[in-house]
Amino acid sequence: MPIIHTTRRGKRYFLHTGPKKGGGTRFFFSTDPDGPLADEIPAGFEVSETLNAQVSLRRKKPRLVLEEEEAHIRNALAKRRGPPHYAVEVRGDVLTIHESTTSLSSLASLDPRLTGGRLEELSRQFATFMPVMRFVLVDRERRHFAPERYCFRSSVEDWIPIGPPGTIASLAREYLKHLGKDSLYELF
To answer: Sign of dihedral through CA atoms 177, 181, 186, 188?
Structure first.
């Protein structure tokens, strides 16, 4: 049975196999269902889908951010009403918050018959995200994270620290209130 992954946008990807230079087998995802398909995921690997619905096969890594810490941020973001929408991504020791760049008004202009509920559903399904804030685990025993925000200035274009390390709960209280506001860019 071939490995098929359907993204949140509804696009299907098939895991293919092929020869590597120097011998061995390489694995890759493609939307093309034809060709040699893999019938299992190689040991030590997992299917990964980015927030922007790009699919790849990646080596499994240990999870360093606890599920409770991720859930705390997700719950805090879920209490926010209205656009923009946010998504959380955990990779290694970093918990990143992404902001949706998809606007409801631009979707509504595509088809004026779309209702509010359907517009909301489409904006979530086809949203494009960009990273805006992250918390980097700096002390595993005390579970302290360093808060950072993305700086969009052309001279910087990188993550910058915005405060001292703390627990996820204290950082969420201190910094999540700035998301979607100009005050975010005053943090450094």
So the answer is: positive
The position carrying tokens 């910058």 is: 160
This prediction has a pTM of 0.76
**DSSP character at residue 145:** E
The verdict on 85 and 109 lying in the same domain is yes
Rounded Cα–Cα distance for residues 168 and 94 (Å): 12
Domain containing residue 94: 67-186
Strand pairing partners for 13?
5
* Same domain, residue pair 178 and 114: yes
Number of helices (H) and strands (E) in the chain: give both, helices first.
4, 10
pLDDT band for position 8 (50/70/90)?
confident
Q: Identify which of 152, 158, 104, 99 has the alpha carbon closest to the alpha carbon of residue 129.
A: 99
* 36 and 86 belong to one structural domain: no
